[in-house]
Amino acid sequence: MDFALFCTRVNILFLLIALCSPCKFIQSPMDFGPLNFHQTTDTSSLDFGRIVFDSPSAVLRPQSPKEISLLLGFLSASSFSKVTVAARGAGHSIDGQAQALDGIVIEMDSLPSTISIHRGRESGSSYADVSGGALWIELLRESLRFGLAPRSWTDYLYLSVGGTLSNGGISGQTFKHGPQISNVLQLDVVTGKGEQVTCSPTESSELFFAALGGLGQFGIITRARILLQDAPPKVKWVRAFYDDFETFTEDQELLVAMPDAVDYVEGFILLNEQSLHSSSVAFPSHLEFTPEFDSNGSNYRVYHCIEFAIHDYQVESTDVEQVVTEISRKMSHIPSHFYSVEVSYFDFLNRVRMEEVSLRSRGLWEVAHPWLNLFVPKSGIREFKDLLLDNISPTDFEGLVLIYPLLRDKWDANSSAVLPDGGGRAEEQVMYIVGVLRSANPATCAAQCLRDLLRRRRRVAKVATDPRIGAKQYLARHPSQGQWQDHFGRHWDRFVARKAQFDPLSILAPGQGIFPRTY
Ligand code: FAD
């Protein structure tokens, strides 16, 4: 054993003794040889949800994947410690999923943020190698310098590559290109046993598919190879309004059936003036839609908005305006309530940043977010919408309700991501993602109010995931292993077997609350 490795082991041993000590004597940054542990930081027990605040005992800011490997290798070989380890990407989880109570948080942004772009000769052969802690906005900026960009996105880009690949990564491009986890060619992963493995669909494929959508349970993603395509200079961004839910969903399904023409499809339910304006940052000057939400107070009217986009490569042979007009003719939106703007591709993808800046300026970004995200089978979407509206008071709802269709065949069934299984019905190709993205403004919603919102979130999730609607939660932390088992359904045994293979002592991602740590 070389001397550096010996020192590291001795030093981690000291760390473990420190962590196990009842008086927790770690008070300042600690130099444990090549591994530099820090005292708990402000962010290590904080996430976007601001609902769970579990403090770790130490924070590792690794400079290389090797350091992560040394730590996990040591922990999995030492039989006396029950220390757990959570990778923390950008900390945009809702329920403490990147936290590790009394364990070690690894801050992934400390890894050197390397992004290298490879332009292939043929279409579909360009890719980026990017570190697991890098943000998608960084990848976008770098790839655009080469006229390239990833195909599949999330709405918000200040999320880490490893964090979204551990969940799915979805947005309005998912119907066309699949989720982000369907656009990965290769990964470097450090398993719970400390092994550094390069994996792909053909090389160590079990680990590759386990890690994609794997909730951080099988290993820490330190590098991902992401598929790129030519980036359009501009995007035609369109909004159409509806006062009828059926017509709204029929038109969404019409759009996702036109992948050759349409590049992005989303939509939202407009519950009140605030939800109309909060999502209209790019449209305010000519959005002359002034709906009457309140028809005499009792029978509340809601509206719906479809958002779609077409990449504008500004090629003479394609008149994007013409394409939009032809698509509009096929749609059944409220006549004359159809708006479009042309924006740069970067501004389009980075649109939620505008919303963030606006919310921050009003002190409404760093507040509690009792979000609920669900995949709902097409056959249950009408009933789910009624359930949701029965449990939401439009007058006091702050936030956004996103709803748009996805196509099941764009997801790889080998990945760990969980989709609805159709609740006994023949599996439908179309399913919906619904995001109830609610903010709890402390000025109007204090502790008791937040508890009520969380109770309502649980109630809606419970009814929605019953076989009658057959939904599956996305990005959720389930409260018990039994409920995780229900969530995974027929895929539970595979998930457990993968855990036994790659993280047998259940060291990783304790904040998901799936597997208790074992010796
Ligand atoms: P973290 O919260 O840091 O971590 C999430 C989980 O992944 C934890 O269990 C953690 O331990 C694990 N993890 C983190 N890094 C790694 C790694 N390198 N290797 C292995 N495991 C790791 N999701 C969508 O799909 N589409 C959206 O449009 C979308 N929009 C969002 C907008 C906002 C404003 C927010 C707050 C979230 C949004 N999300 C969206 C959800 C987001 O994708 C997830 O919360 C994701 O986990 C965030 O990435 P992160 O880097 O913040 O992860």
Q: Give the overall average pLDDT.
A: 90
How many structural domains in the coordinates?
A: 3
- Poorly predicted runs of 5 or more residues: 22-31
Helical region count? 15
Q: Strand fraction band?
A: 15-25%
Please identify the structural class as seen in this structure: alpha+beta
Q: Using the alpha-carbon principal axes, give the shape.
A: globular
How many distinct beta strands? 21
The ligands bound in this entry are: flavin-adenine dinucleotide
Cα Rg? 23 Å
**Which strand order does the major sheet show?**
17-12-16-13-19-20-18-21
Q: What is the CATH domain class of the largest domain?
A: Alpha Beta
CATH topology of the largest domain: Vanillyl-alcohol Oxidase, Chain A, domain 3
What is the fourth-level CATH superfamily of the largest domain? FAD-linked oxidases, C-terminal domain
Roughly what percent helix? 25-40%
3D architecture notes:
It holds the Pfam family Cytokin-bind. It comes from Musa acuminata subsp. malaccensis. Belongs to the oxygen-dependent FAD-linked oxidoreductase family. This protein has 519 residues and is α+β, with helices and mostly antiparallel strands. It folds into three domains: 3-110 and 500-512, Uridine Diphospho-n-acetylenolpyruvylglucosamine Reductase, domain 2 (2-Layer Sandwich), CATH 3.30.43.10; 115-230, Uridine Diphospho-n-acetylenolpyruvylglucosamine Reductase, domain 3, CATH 3.30.465.10; 234-473, Vanillyl-alcohol Oxidase, Chain A, domain 3. The chain contains 15 helices and 21 strands. Helix 1 crosses helix 2. The site of flavin-adenine dinucleotide (FAD) has 36 residues, from strand 4, helix 4 and strand 11.
